[in-house]
Amino acid sequence: MRKGLITATGLGLAALLASGMLAAQVYKVVDEHGNVTYTDQPPPDGTPPMELPELSVVESEEDVTAVADPATLLNADPVDADGLAATPEKTPRELRQMFSDFRILTPTQDETFWGTANVVVVTWGANAAYEEGMQVSVVVNGDPQDVDPNRNLPLTLDRGEHQVYAVLRDNRGRRIMTTDTVTFFVKQASARINPG
Questions:
Q1: Would 20 be classed as within a structural domain?
Q2: Are the beta carbons of 95 and 174 closer than 8 angstroms?
Q3: Is residue 76 part of a domain?
Q4: Exposure string (b/e) for 38-62, b if CB count within 10 Å is 16 or more?
């Protein structure tokens, strides 16, 4: 019981300090049962106020925005490092909506390639234009390859069955979309052709 009360009063002290009462005097009072109370009222026995350590505060971007003058925020345009008006960065959710149609364009599902010298060109796409800094990883037979999102990927593959899919990431490397896996086949004409 005593430990719970001390914890509760300790939390009360933390709340008192966090609520801006830092400039006020804080007194620690222990009653005859050993219960500890923190208060801003001087106790009758003349106990001096506590010496409180200085609080360390680290503000996040959200904290800075929260304490800024709302009128300033409403009238201010975001700027980039060069002081030019910046476009607000899209959230992953907004990007997922924009790129919901991100898919492998070639090869198509169950496509067979003959006479291409085992070369297959993988392409991908979406209706929306890629944002600056977006990245694509193309995974061929389990092997990921990072590529420019605006280019294609020529592959030289052995004969047989292959699988490919692509992952679209934003400029922070967060996964936005993954395509369906496409299975395709590379075949060659047999070297043993019966002339007769």
A1: yes
A2: no
A3: no
A4: beeeeeeeeeeeeeeeeeeeeeeee
